[in-house]
Structure formats: structure tokens, C-alpha cells
């Protein structure tokens, strides 16, 4: 079977630039798809970290003007990725977070910065490069959402598009008076086009006009069609439900491999987990927790915010302390939550520890040393941290939402009897049910044989990209007949 060329359009890609799970997916998919006969190139903005990492970059096209200045398209490789990089210093040569100014506010020209990404993607689909013709364009999140719109409302042939929603809460809405400046005609500003509550909706445009929509877990695909989780887009999504598919994320099991992880104190495996005790001791020492091998050590690796339910954990700390457990937290976000966890750590030294910020190495060591990982999210499209926890033998304690519901098997009496359980799950997401899950986790931990079985079951779970890559490959190939003759695009 001929190798299908797919262009991935992403605003971040691990390990070059990362703010969340989107980067992990964009970074892992190309290698996973290679085994399925798919050749994937990734189009990414030329942030300083990206251009610095490019190896033997070649300028393959020049733009006289890309939303306010000249730009070049660079082709090169970095971190094993085949990249096309938009070298547009006036749009992307800025330090730090790719979306935010140093004071935490959105860059005021984000509409143009990410319209540039989408416009170049559409140009590539229309034959910008003489020796490159992607058969499918895969757009990730709102930053790539105008790509289908440039096909629909521009001149020339089109390429089938897939729009993936990593988190529906981030939608990219901008003032309507930017329509012409973004290169879109007046006819684009309708409910069947880019208009969304009187604004230009980047994500809405992608969801409306792409040939297929995916999101990152089957349960989340159902949830976003509901009034509770649809974030104002549920009507559109219900109307396109036959084109919507949930494909579960995976993780890079080479990067996340407790048997060969250079970032942890002692490697171990499901067959020989004994060294995990050394990782727990090392984590307790690194975080300033009391060195106690028998104490239940909970952990969090997360953005601190309402979505992630960390306010529930903050309010549950008296229970955690009463249970004699420890907490190691790594994350940043909401200032009040950061202050609350810092205060708790100060008030309970040796029992609660927090590191505000993100540290990739510490994240690995927490997964290797914690007994249980807490993910009490109010909604969670997929979640990657619980997949890493399963891989490392940290028992996940999760809300029954989105991808958490799809990846963790609750330690119910039936699942325990069948020796199938991998974690603890609670629903609905409220204080009472979360605290009940903490008590249940503590009770399970006091039964070493059951706890060890939970760990073994989790470590035996396939959290790789193998199955998801097969699903994406089938999806891409299902679109190819639609590409054959070239046609102008309208509403899908």
C-alpha cells in the first residue's frame, strides 16, 4: 500500500514547545503512524525554541507578506520530527509561552499569528511546494481552525481536513471586523461559516467546515454533544455527530518507560517492581517529605485550575492529613490555588509538599515514586497523566469523565473479583464523592495484596499509540476518495 502523506498543523509539538497535551500528541503521532504506512510532516510556527532546534533547515518558500511582514517556510528535522516551520519573526519570535505575553495576557495579534499558521497550511494543500502534496491535512485545536475555512472560501482545489479538539474550552474567538484583514470574504461570516455569536470563531470554523472531527477520547466525544460539556458548541456538534469520532490518546512508551527511565532513581518493571520502593524514598527526600515507606503518598501533576478540580483537593486536605497520608504536588495556574497549596505545605512540613511550576524530570520521578495519582477533573478530554501513572504503577484516582472514564477501571467489588481493576473512580465530581474516593483509596492501600494487584494491572494496560494510530490511519484513508477530483469547498 502506498504511503499516504498527511500534514499535521499544530501550534506546539513536544519536545520543542509544549504547554499541554496537544504538544504530546503532535509530537508522538508521526512515529506511531509510520508503522501504519502514513508519512506525517508537522507544520508549526517558528518560535525561537523551534527554529533553534532545526537541523540543516532549508528555505523552501518565501512569502512577501504574511499578515504584516515577510516570512519564509523552512523544511528541516528536529527531535526525529519532519517539520515545516513558518519563519515569521514579526509573528512568532517571542520568548516564553506561545500564546501569552509575560504578564499572562493573550498576545493582542493572536488572530493573525494563528491565521498565518492556517493560511500556510491551506497553501500547502493547494500545491505551494512542487514536490509535496499532502493527501489529508490534520488540524489541531483552534489555532489551526481556520484551515478548512481558507479552503471553503478561497480559490483553488481542496484537501480533506480532519479537525481534532483537544479541549473544547479553548475556542479562539476574535472581533468580526478582522474578517477582511484575515483574508476571508464577507460570505464567510455566516452561521454556516466562521461566525460565532457575532465574532470570528476559529475553532467553530474548523468544526463547521472540516470533513471529519475527532476528539481525544470516545466518552469526551459524547460529552461535548451535551449541554453540560458542549461549551456553546453542542448544537453544531450534534448536527455533525455522524462526522465526529473519539480516538483515545496514547503516550510515548519509550519516553515513559520505568524500566529504562534515566530521570528516575531506580528502574523497575511490572515483573520486578521491587525497586519502586527506592523511587518512593528518593521522591520523599527530594520533596522534603518524611521518609516513611509505609505512608500512603498521593501525588498531583497538573495545571491548577477549576477544570482540574484541584479546589476539591485543597478542601480535602484535612481528610488527607487525618488519614496520615502525604501529598506531593507539581503544577501551576490559579493564583489562589497556588497560594493555598503553599500555605498547606508550610503548615504541614513533611506531610505536604508542593512545587509551583513544571519540571519534566520531577514529573517522571513523581510517577515512579507516588503510590496514587489524583486527577479529580470536572471535565477531561483525555488526560495523559493517568496514562503515565498506569504505566509507572501509581494507582490513578480519577473522576468518571472524558478520557479518565475510558482509561481507568474502577476498583469495584466486581472488578476486584475479576482482577481487572486499575484504579479508583468517583462520580459525580463534588466534594463528598471525592473525599469518599480518598477514603476508599486509603482502605485499599491498607490491603497490600490488593494494592499490588492494582499496580500490576495498571502496568499491564496498553497505553501506547499503537491502537490509536491504527484508528487515525483508517480515518485518513477513508477520506482519500473524497479528494479525487479537486473541487472548491463549501459546507461539509
UniProtKB/TrEMBL annotation:
InterPro entries, per database record: Glyco_trans_1, GS/SS, Starch_synth_cat_dom
GO molecular function terms listed in the Swiss-Prot or TrEMBL record: alpha-1,4-glucan glucosyltransferase (ADP-glucose donor) activity; alpha-1,4-glucan glucosyltransferase (UDP-glucose donor) activity
Keywords from the UniProt entry: Glycogen biosynthesis, Glycosyltransferase, Transferase
Chain residues that bind ADP-alpha-D-glucose: 18
One Gene Ontology term, aspect cellular component: cytosol
EC top class named in words: transferase
E.C. number: 2.4.1.21
Any single Pfam family the record assigns to this protein: Glyco_transf_5
This protein's pathway: Glycan biosynthesis; glycogen biosynthesis
One GO term of the biological process aspect: glycogen biosynthetic process
Domain of life: Bacteria
Residue span(s) of domain Glycosyl transferase family: 295-440
Record bears the keyword Glycosyltransferase: yes
Catalysed reactions listed for this entry: [(1->4)-alpha-D-glucosyl](n) + ADP-alpha-D-glucose = [(1->4)-alpha-D-glucosyl](n+1) + ADP + H(+)
Matching CDD domains: GT5_Glycogen_synthase_DULL1-like (cd03791)
Domain Starch synthase catalytic: 5-238
UniProt similarity note: Belongs to the glycosyltransferase 1 family. Bacterial/plant glycogen synthase subfamily.
Role noted for this protein: Synthesizes alpha-1,4-glucan chains using ADP-glucose.
Cross-referenced HAMAP family: Glycogen_synth (MF_00484)
Protein name: Glycogen synthase
